[in-house]
Each structure stands twice: as C-alpha cells, then as structure tokens.
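Hey,
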Amino acid sequence: MKGRFLSNFRQINENLPVLLAGEGIFLVISELITVLFVPEGLKATAAAGILIGVLAAACGSILLALIIRSALYRDGNKGAAVFLTLLRAGLAAVILLVCLAKDPKLGVAVLIGMLSGQTGVYLAPAAARFRNRKEKK
C-alpha cells in the first residue's frame, strides 16, 4: 500500500509540465472568451482576474510538486520542516490573494482562473498514456 501511495505521488511530479501546459491552455481559451463575449465594462476586470487565478493555480501546482519532493526525498525531521514551511507559504499566498481581490467581480474571475488547475489534471492521464506508448517503442 505504501509503495503504491508513494508511486502515485512521484507520478504527480512527473506530470507537472502537463499540469502547467493545461493551465496555459485554459488561460489562452478563457482570455479569448473574455475578449469575445464579456461586456466592455467588465473585460479588464475579468481578464486580470483570470490571469491572477491561473498564475495562482500554476504556483499551487509548483508548490505541490515541491512539497511532494521534499516529503519523498528527504529523510527525518528536515523533510517535515521543509514540508511545513512550504505549506505555510502556500497558505499565506492564498490569504494574500483573497485580501487583494476586494472587488467581488475580480474575486469571481480569480476563482474561475484558479479552476485552470483542473485542466491539467484532466490532461495528465492522456499524457501518461502517450508517455507509456513512447517508452514501449
């Protein structure tokens, strides 16, 4: 059980480029939709909020990879200390982001942008299948 659990975490670190690529695709598509369909008065707020949200999701993905790496590849209390420090840094970043988004419209756009993390999660299995086929050849 423990070996399978650790291998799943290692796979998350292998899929970090796919997660970031999915977030980039989400950013391009959502900004295009914003430019085409959002009314003029809300375009700037929506575009800025989505950009902030996607950047926050990308930072969250990188932070998750760093946390996993520190927990898996360091031993003893040093790994736990790094893990807790990175976790606190992520929590502080989220609190700062919420405090900066005082406009409710901007807050909603930030939340929409933060959904970009899910795009990479949905692309990861397809990328893993592609990688496995490539390794078999």
